[in-house]
């Protein structure tokens, strides 16, 4: 089950076939998503209840997912080009669980050992849990499945494209907060930023190793759920 090779052969082949036009479409998709997220953020300035805002978050995530799928279908590409396939499914899920376990252990150890914080468990509501599930699949399909692979049409270096995509993925966590609370570079904590970057690279590794999106999706869901359950207090 373990394989030293970090990139699946089919993943490599797909990336080699993308053109500059595909790369431009990936950037355009990113800009569209940022616009959608800013619009979502402005809703937090309204008098809508927290429950409705949580539901709307799931709706916006679903919208982003369909926009991403729309780019694939509009280009007449197959869904397996964004990792939606059963090929290598078991291997992908295994690596996803492994990656999630490593990330969660890292978060717990950092907060308990280095920060000296206590762990408090707070279980999310059903609405929040559903939002986590929808958000994870939309982000994996759009960023790991579509944007990063198509960026290779502009930059023929998977390490560089992964680093660029890490920045793009991280940046999407700012618009909602900026629109709701005002612009600030430090609106996200340093540790949260580090965790998001690590999440990207681990999800990326799982996907590129199997060319199957379901492992990175499972990893992302587990990360979202456990980081919401684990509350650290001094």
UniProtKB/TrEMBL annotation:
InterPro entries: Rce1/LyrA-like_dom (IPR003675). GO terms for molecular function: endopeptidase activity; metallopeptidase activity. The keyword Transmembrane helix applies. Pfam families: Rce1-like. Keywords: Hydrolase, Membrane, Metalloprotease, Protease, Transmembrane, Transmembrane helix. Residues 125-226 form the CAAX prenyl protease 2/Lysostaphin resistance protein A-like domain. The chain crosses the membrane at residues 26-43, 55-74, 94-114, 120-142, 154-172, 178-202, 214-233. It comes from the Bacteria. One of its GO terms (biological process) is CAAX-box protein maturation. This is CPBP family intramembrane metalloprotease. It comes from Clostridioides difficile. The lineage of its organism: Bacteria, Bacillati, Bacillota, Clostridia, Peptostreptococcales.
